[in-house]
Amino acid sequence: MAMSVEAMPVKTMSVTPLSPALGAAITGVDLRKALDDATVKAINDAFDRYIVVVFRDQELSEADQVRAAGYFGKVHIRRRPANGRTPGGEYDTPFMMVTNIVENGKPIGSFGDGEMWFHHDTSYYPQPHRATFLYAMKLTSSGGETCFANMYKAYENIPQPLRDRLEGRKVLQVHDYKRRERIDLGKVGVANIQHHEQPIIITHPATGKKALYISRLMSARIEGFSADESEAALEALFDISEDPAIVYEHEWRLGDLVVWDNWASIHARKDFPRDEPRLMRRCTIEGRALGF
Ligand SMILES: [Fe+2]
């Protein structure tokens, strides 16, 4: 399809911080139009600096969202999981609908209802996704906020003795389609679920800064620690990573396109009324292996 879209001058764009923790709103950008290189650079600079960027009042087709996502990297195409576990929705497209909507008895997307604990997306992959996009298409009358924690600040807040013990260690990241419980590896068996070992402290490939890389939902065990040592350290790190001082809580408005740096932040969802439809169109940017 031919695109007859006009370039937008950079002077219309502005960036407004949303909280002391992280996040900025980007205004003066209409993502239905192609952006010029200077604007794309300014957006990426804001993204590296603020970790989460919010484009308000957007009216985006699927093509618009894919074009916008493409400013941040290579858009990931979802494939059917090899292990046969298939959460709802379509495959071989960039999109997954994050929704509680059920049609003809079948969920039209994934992640249904309710609270979801803090996590990185795809931390259990060898190459965790670089960024995630959520576009708000239907919202409930209350609740459903998404909380984002700044993992650069979490790293800085680890007490030095604990930080010294974590240096050079890996953590096992796991995923079993849970939303608000830790996985009991004694019961499940790690071979039966998606998993990958990652550095506990990563060097962010884009910014070169160090970030804590654990989450309450997906981090199961610290390599080289006894079970008790691992649990004690993880509990301390979960609390550090969820400290309200480093968290921004996003209250959604229709037409928000929120983009988060999935290496430098973790996110969680608050509960919302089950009997009201909520619909977000999600896509991601491909990642790379994370190093110490
Ligand atoms: Fe997520």
Summarize, please.
With 292 residues, this protein is α+β, with helices and mostly antiparallel strands. The protein contains six helices and 19 strands. It has two domains: 10-141 and 249-262 and 272-285, Clavaminate synthase-like (Double-stranded beta-helix, 4-Layer Sandwich), CATH 3.60.130.10; 151-241, no CATH class.
Uncertain runs are: none
Report how far the terminal alpha carbons are from each other.
43 Å
Instruction: Please give the number of β-strands.
Output: 19
Strand order of the largest sheet: 1-2-3-17-9-19-4-7
Shape, per Cα inertia axes: globular
> Rg from C-alpha positions?
19 Å
The biggest beta sheet reads: 8 strands, mixed
CATH class of the largest domain: Alpha Beta
Please, could you describe this protein's structure?
This protein has two domains: 10-141 and 249-262 and 272-285, Clavaminate synthase-like (Double-stranded beta-helix), CATH 3.60.130; 151-241, no CATH class. It has an eight-stranded mixed sheet, covered by helices on one side. The chain has a four-stranded antiparallel sheet with strand order 8-18-10-16. A three-stranded antiparallel sheet has the order 12-11-15. The protein is of the alpha+beta class and 292 residues long. The chain has helices at 37-50, 62-70, 151-156, 160-166, 185-188, 227-241, and strands spanning 14-17, 24-27, 52-55, 96-99, 102-103, 106-107, 110-111, 116-119, 131-138, 146-150, 170-175, 194-199, 201-203, 210-212, 219-222, 247-250, 257-261, 265-269, 279-285. Helices cover 19% and strands 28% of the residues. It contains six helices and 19 strands. Fe (ii) ion is lined by residues 119, 121, 267.
